[in-house]
Design brief:
This protein is mostly helical and 193 residues long. The chain has seven helices and two strands. Helix content is 75%, strand content 3%. The two termini are 21 Å apart.
């Protein structure tokens, strides 16, 4: 019984560390985004960057929909998907137009995800955090799946990827793993005859 409590306590502490790292990364990104937004307001030519990208995409899509030039089928599919991502109707029921705000949103979103992954990898690697090692302690069957991540660097990368998704999804994942561990290590509470 004491071993079960010690295992659950140790796992809770380890998961707390993972959540703390994810929270630190989120706060760092919030500060960086505030600085980025400040510079965008302070220097208007940065806002013009998004407008120039919108104009370039507009020319590209006019060519696509006018069928000017040679387009491969794959490029047409990619451009059609891209069109749906960066365009919005000017008014309800209106023709979709390229939105500089949507272009900015998607560029910033991709940049923050990449920065989050980079920061998470640095923290995971520097602290030696390995989610697979924790899972192997809880579920011995996962030790057999070690062939999926044979290299320690790959284990760090996957751990960083999981941490970089943010605290809320990570908390849900950790809660499910802890619930499984408690069910596995708790003695049967039913009244057996």
């Amino acid at each position: 019984m004491t071993d079960n409590i010690e295992v659950i306590t140790a796992l809770t502490y380890i998961y707390f560390v993972f959540l703390l790292v994810a929270l630190i990364i989120e706060r760092i990104l919030e500060v960086l985004m505030a600085i980025f937004n400040y510079f965008e307001v302070k220097f208007p030519h940065l806002q013009e960057l998004w407008n120039s990208k919108a104009r370039k995409y507009q020319i590209r899509f006019e060519r696509l929909y006018g069928y000017q030039g040679l387009y491969s089928e794959k490029k047409k599919i990619f451009d059609t998907i891209l069109w749906k991502v960066i365009s919005e109707p000017a008014y309800p029921g209106g023709k979709p137009i390229i939105s500089a705000n949507l272009i900015r949103l998607h560029y910033v979103r991709i940049a923050t995800r990449l920065m989050s992954l980079y920061l998470a990898f640095i923290l995971v690697y520097s602290q030696g955090l390995d989610l697979f090692q924790v899972l192997e302690k809880i579920v011995p069957e996962t030790a057999e799946a070690k062939a999926l991540t044979p290299y320690q660097g790959m284990r760090y990368f996957v751990t960083a990827l999981i941490i970089s998704i943010g605290t809320d999804p990570l908390h849900q994942l950790i809660s499910r793993i802890e619930k499984y561990a408690q069910e596995r290590y708790q003695p049967n509470q039913g009244g057996e005859a």
